Amino acid sequence: MPTRQVFREEPALTQFAFTRLLEWLDDGVDSHGERYLEMRRRLVTYFDRRNRRAADDLADETFNRIARTLEQTGTIAVTPPARYCYVVARFVLLEDYRRDRRHVPLDEPRSIEHAVAHSLAIAENAEQFAAREDRLDCLDRCLQTLRPDQRDLAIEYYRDAKRQRIERRRDLASRLGISMNALGIRACRIREALMTCVEACRGTR
Hints:
75% helix; globular; Arc Repressor Mutant, subunit A; 10 helices; mainly alpha; 0% strand; 2 domains
């Protein structure tokens, strides 16, 4: 099934949602659409380097999901915008891998697994990759059940390397007007809720 056909099942973006997307990407500085074009080029490259046949469609789908989030919540706390774009792009990529495995051409019964192994540059076997992908899919589903502020906090709190993470957490606590200890407690509760949700999700599969 072509990627474009799958994505067409989603409702089209409203002009309001698209405008919010452009404003969010500009991050306070009107680029007259240049930021959008540059980020779209980077997303297409991201998917193309992973041997996805519909890189343009996947980039558009990434933007569509972000735009719908902005339309529903009004804001996304994760900064800079490019970082959040890649978070969403990763989930779109994993969904595209699954979609390919469900629609393997009869004359290419093994090509998808080989492409996945090559694209991710991993030594895992097919079962290990499938298990990790399943966990990520459940994590994505569980993240969507959180309130927007909880979801953004979880992404911000646990990303980056160790030293960068400490600085980012200090900045996050400052922006929220709470202590580092209070931030840690809040993040821990969200993580525990996510872990419970992920395990429940995997148990239903």
